[in-house]
Amino acid sequence: MFPTAWAAVVLSAIITGLFLFILGKLRLARWVRFIPYPVIGGFLAGSGWLLVRGSFKVMVGVPLSWQELPRLLQFEAFSHWLVGLCFALVLLIVLKRYKHFALLPGLVFGTSALFLLGLRLVSLSVSEASARQWLFTPFPSDQLTKIWDVSVFSDVNWPVLLSQSGNFIVLMLVAVITILLNASSLEIATQTDVNLDRELQVCGLADFLAGCSGGMVGIISFKFRDLGQSFR
To answer: Which residues have C-beta within 8 Å of that of residue 53, sequence separation ≥ 6?
Structure first.
């Protein structure tokens, strides 16, 4: 499972990088200006819903749906996603009120430390917490070094990756739209013209190199409100 997941991350970055670079070379970025606002709003809403559903899958192991609602309301599952919901609300309130680059990682590490302290207070060991699916299980000691061995590709389940080709296409399109929307917002905030084709080429090259280094897809991102305030 681990080699297959690693290959999916690497290949998605490489393929997305090549796709972005080719689009930039062909000067096709200008077509983003013809995407209607309702379509953009629907895209953002759909992306948010997928993130919410995925968060329940990570926290509880059960997807968010009407069919699984009875299981989500059971105490064991409820206690898991309630903690995640509380942390999400803390992030929403704190990050909206205070602005500092170290705030988000500080909240993540600080809350993790409080959680581990809480385990000790209730006399629950780390191994017991892992068995109850509160923590990740340890990776096999030889897996992290094995990924840089060419022979790891023999352990990849390629039919599984092929069955996820539709998701790879979606990821590529999401990356393109997000980059171009953020770059267009940057134009408005700075009152300057941005070379959208060059943005795609640079991001594509960065993603390609990231994939070759074992990394994942990355895109430009910023807080538009903070950027707008700085330019005012």
So the answer is: 63, 64, 65
Q: What letter does residue 213 receive in the DSSP assignment?
A: T
Cα dihedral: 152, 155, 157, 162 (round 10):
30
pTM of the model: 0.65
CA atoms within 13 A on the CB side of 163: 5
End-to-end C-alpha distance for the chain, whole angstroms:
50
Identify the three-state secondary structure at position 162: helix
Task: Report the C-alpha gap between 222 and 185 in whole angstroms.
Answer: 10
Which pLDDT tens digits describe the chain residue by residue (232 residues)?
A: 778 888 898 899 999 999 999 999 998 887 776 778 787 778 778 878 888 888 998 888 888 888 888 888 888 889 889 989 999 999 989 988 888 888 889 999 999 999 889 888 888 888 888 888 888 777 666 656 665 666 777 788 889 888 988 888 888 888 888 888 777 777 777 777 878 888 899 999 999 999 988 888 888 766 545 544 444 4
Q: Which residues contact 139 (CB under 8 A, 6 or more apart)?
A: 2
